Amino acid sequence: MNLFNHTSQQIFRKKSDLQNGFTLLEAIITVSIMGILAAVVTPTYLKTQIEAKLVMSQTNSLQIKQGLVNLYLQGYMEGNYDVWPDEPADNRMTQTWANSTILYDGRSVAQLYSSSKIIMNPYENPYLYYQLPETAQEPAGFRIDDPDTGVSQSFRP
Predict the structure, then answer these.
(1) Is the Cα torsion angle 30, 31, 37, 40 positive or negative in sign?
(2) How far is CA 150 from the centre of its chain?
(3) In sequence order, what DSSP letters do the residues of the chain get, joined into one string?
(4) Which CA distances in Å does 40 have to 36, 44, 45, 50, 114?
(5) Torsion sign (Cα): 98, 64, 129, 105
(6) Does residue 89 lie within any of the structural domains?
(7) Residue 142 in this model has a pLDDT that exceeds 60
(8) Is residue 32 part of a domain?
(9) Are 127 and 93 in contact (CB under 8 A)?
(10) Does any domain span residue 15?
(11) Model confidence over 29-88: pLDDT tens digits?
(12) Who contacts 86 (Cβ-Cβ below 8 Å, separation ≥6)?
């Protein structure tokens, strides 16, 4: 029994002494597994990133919409129904437009929001703002579009 244990220890020691690194086969298998994992995970990561930007765009456009709806409700309570800000020339809701467009109550569009900044879309581009004209069936309102994600919010009282 003692002889058997001694022999097996010598065999394992000799094998470990000869093996100083990874074999080529082990390296190829490891690289292959990493490549498969990357191929599976990358599309999922990109899809998740796009979905997150879509949700962020919806949330941001809803915040802009809510600020304008609050403006309308304030004007309604004061008996002023023509409260919508003028459209920008290129329909882009930039910070310059938000600072320079004065509302019926003397505030700028930017002051409708707590940070006094107009919110940009997830790609750091401005949303588009359109006034919706009054029709025989509906009162005047507005629409906000995100040109990058296709998200659109509109309001008619």
Answers:
(1) negative
(2) 13
(3) -HHHHHHHHHHHHHHHHH--S--HHHHHHHHHHHHHHHHHHHHHHHHHHHHHHHHHHHHHHHHHHHHHHHHHHHHHHTT----PPPPPTT-B--HHHHHH-B-TTS-BGGGGSTTSSPPPPTTS-PPEEEEEPP-SSS--EEEEE-TTT--EEEE--
(4) 6, 7, 9, 17, 42
(5) negative
(6) yes
(7) yes
(8) no
(9) yes
(10) no
(11) 999 999 999 888 888 899 999 999 999 999 999 999 999 999 999 999 999 888 999 999
(12) 101, 131
Domain that holds residue 61: 40-155
Residue 69 lies in a domain: yes
Q: In this structure, what token pair is assigned to residue 109?
A: 């569009």
Side chain identity at residue 106, one-letter code: G
Tell me how far CA of residue 134 lies from CA of 73, 139, 140, 145, in angstroms: 17, 5, 4, 19
Rounded distance between C-alpha atoms, residue 7 and residue 13, angstroms = 10
How far apart are alpha carbons 101 and 142 in whole angstroms? Answer: 16
Query: In this predicted model, what pLDDT tens digit does every residue of 67-76 receive, in sequence order?
Result: 999 999 999 9
Tokens read off for 140: 């005047």
Extract the tokens encoding 116. 């006094």
State the total domains in the chain.
1
